[in-house]
Design brief:
Elements (H helix, E strand, L loop, with lengths): L15 E15 L6 E15 L3 E5 L6 H9 L6 E6 L2 E2 L7 E4 L11 H5 L1 H5 L4 H14 L15 H14 L4 E5 L7 H18 L2 E5 L3 H7 L2 E6 L4 E7 L13 H16 L4 H6 L9
The structure holds adenosine-5'-triphosphate and magnesium ion (MG).
Adenosine-5'-triphosphate binds next to strand 1, strand 2 and helix 1.
Amino acid sequence: MTDFTDDTVAVHDETEKIVAVNINKIYKVRQKDSEKLTEFQALKNINLTVKKEEFLVIVGPSGCGKSTFLDMVAGLAHPTSGEIYMDEKLITGPALDRGIVLQGYALFPWRSIRKNVEFGLEIKKIPRKERTEISQRFIDLVNLHGFEDRYPHELSGGMKQRVAIARALAYDPEVLLMDEPFAAVDAQTRESLQEELLRIWEKTKKTIIFITHSIDEAIFLADRVVVMSADPGEIKETINIELPRPRDGIRASAEFGRLRQKIWQLLQNGHADTEELRQSDNLNDRAV
Ligand SMILES: Nc1ncnc2c1ncn2[C@@H]1O[C@H](COP(=O)(O)OP(=O)(O)OP(=O)(O)O)[C@@H](O)[C@H]1O
Ligand SMILES: [Mg+2]
């Protein structure tokens, strides 16, 4: 890991893409029935290095600070203390080197699919002809050929999600930040989106940070899974997923089951609502 403790010489490891150092986030919150503000520590001492071209997945109970952390990497929020670096440069705000895909699609309803995908390219001032070529390539990549001139309200949830992915990829960010991107789609569409995302990742070699509540989704996608705990939000453990790729059919393997059990147990130990979760648990796709 990059040595940021030495002020004079920072030794940079070429394989590192994003380095978070001692991140703390404290919110001032109003107490119930009181005007008094108290401090709430949303994130505590987060140290995390994401390697170039790595697929990193974060899981953890609701409220443990996953989105807060991702927003900081996106440059949309700032830590109370600590720093996040991308390629050794301190992240101070949003930029087109990081593409963001959020849960709620966030497409522009007044723009056609093609125009949605071209949005970042327009900001980058890419000429029209080139813009059309690039947007077509990414629309094809997410299997939406033929839907270019439709509007978001004319698409299904899974299709909208694919447009959001195409839009984030089209302006060629080095890093993709995805906050529960598949949470709102049905189980079958979700699995095909996961496969599609892996295909795109293998083709484009992006660095991906992906948040999910599904343990199965995490294992299926990740090179590494970061398990967080809440109150305060901390990294509990990081697990290497050494399953072979491509991962078609891997969910039925014994190793997949072992990893599922391990992550489930880690989450169980740090979660107040465990019993409720256990009761609603579905063995094939455990959500946290
Ligand atoms: N602007 C804010 N002011 C005060 N507290 C906040 C603010 N934003 C987030 N929090 C708190 O910080 C904690 C972490 O929130 P965050 O949205 O990062 O959680 P999360 O892990 O993404 O949860 P979920 O899985 O439900 O999306 C929560 O307890 C939340 O209430
Ligand atoms: Mg969140």
